[in-house]
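can u do me a favor
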C-alpha cells in the first residue's frame, strides 16, 4: 500500500501566516479594538440584574473608603513636612486599586463603559438600560459609603488618633463651593475614564496605572463623587455637615462634573477617534 502523503503548505505561506499573526498581535490594541473591548464589557454590564449591581455597588462604596482611610493614616503618622502632601495622597489610590482590580461597580467607571454601547446603537432601550444602571450603581455606592463612614465614626474599628485626620480630609473635600466642586470634578471624571480606556492594554502594569492616575486625582485636589461620598457621610454622621449643604453644595455639583468629564469630554473624544472605523466595518 502506498504511504499516505500529507499536503503541507508551502514554506512561504507558513511564513506569511506567522508574520500576519505577529502583525495582528502587535496591533491588537489599536483604538478601535480598545473601544470594542470596552463596548462589549459595557454591554455585559447593561444586561446585569439589579441584584447583582446593588451588591457589587455596595461593595465598591465600602471599599472605596480605603482611599480616605489610607490618606488619613499617612497624614496622621508622617512628619509635618512640605513633601507630606504628595506622599499622603498615595493613600487615596488604595480604594481605587481595590475596587477597579476587584471588578466592582464604581459609578464613575460607568460614565465611559456603559456609554460606548449607546454611541454605537442609539436607541431608547439602551438609554433606559444605561439610566437604570447609573441609578442603581450610584445609589448602591452611596449606601456602601455611608456604611463605611458609620464604621469610622460610631465604632472603635479605626484608632482614635486617625479620626481627626478623617474629619479634616472630609471638611476639605466638602468645603469647596458648589461651583468649585463642579469644575474640579470634571478632570476627575476624565482621569477615571482614561484609566478605563488604558486598562485593556495595561496587563501587568494595571496596578501602577491605577496607582498613578488616582494619585493624580488626590494630588490635583480634584473631586470624585464616590470617594467624596465617604467623606461627605463621615462629616454628616460626625455632625459637621447638614443634609442640604451635603446634597446641593457637594453631591450634585460633583456628580454632574464627573459625568461631564467622563462622558461628554472623554467618551465623546474616544468615540470620535474610532467612529469612522467602526461605521466602516459595519457597512
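np, heres the sequence
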Amino acid at each position: 500500500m502506498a504511504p499516505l502523503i500529507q499536503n503541507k503548505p508551502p514554506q512561504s505561506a507558513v511564513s506569511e501566516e506567522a508574520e500576519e499573526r505577529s502583525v495582528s498581535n502587535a496591533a491588537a490594541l489599536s483604538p478601535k479594538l480598545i473601544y470594542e473591548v470596552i463596548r462589549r464589557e459595557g454591554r455585559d454590564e447593561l444586561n446585569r440584574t439589579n441584584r447583582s449591581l446593588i451588591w457589587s455597588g455596595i461593595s465598591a462604596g465600602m471599599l472605596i473608603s480605603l482611599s480616605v482611610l489610607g490618606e488619613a493614616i499617612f497624614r496622621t503618622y508622617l512628619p509635618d513636612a512640605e513633601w507630606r502632601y504628595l506622599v499622603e495622597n498615595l493613600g487615596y489610590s488604595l480604594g481605587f486599586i481595590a475596587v477597579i482590580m476587584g471588578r466592582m461597580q464604581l459609578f464613575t467607571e460607568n460614565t465611559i463603559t456603559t456609554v460606548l454601547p449607546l454611541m454605537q446603537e442609539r436607541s431608547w432601550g439602551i438609554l433606559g438600560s444605561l439610566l437604570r444602571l447609573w441609578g442603581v450603581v450610584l445609589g448602591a455606592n452611596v449606601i456602601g459609603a455611608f456604611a463605611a463612614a458609620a464604621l469610622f465614626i460610631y465604632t472603635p474599628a479605626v484608632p482614635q488618633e486617625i479620626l481627626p485626620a478623617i474629619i479634616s480630609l472630609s471638611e476639605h473635600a466638602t468645603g469647596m463651593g458648589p461651583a468649585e466642586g463642579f469644575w474640579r470634578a470634571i478632570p476627575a471624571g476624565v482621569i477615571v475614564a482614561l484609566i478605563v480606556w488604558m486598562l485593556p492594554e495595561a496587563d501587568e502594569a494595571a496596578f501602577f496605572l491605577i496607582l498613578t492616575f488616582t494619585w493624580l486625582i488626590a494630588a490635583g485636589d480634584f473631586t470624585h463623587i464616590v470617594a467624596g461620598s465617604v467623606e461627605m457621610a463621615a462629616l454628616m454622621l460626625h455632625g459637621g455637615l447638614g443634609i442640604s449643604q451635603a446634597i446641593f453644595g457637594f453631591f450634585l455639583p460633583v456628580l454632574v462634573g464627573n459625568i461631564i468629564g467622563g462622558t461628554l469630554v472623554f467618551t465623546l473624544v474616544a468615540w470620535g477617534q474610532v467612529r469612522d472605523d467602526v461605521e466602516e466595518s459595519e457597512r
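Residues 243-282 form the longest helix (40 residues). hope that helps!!
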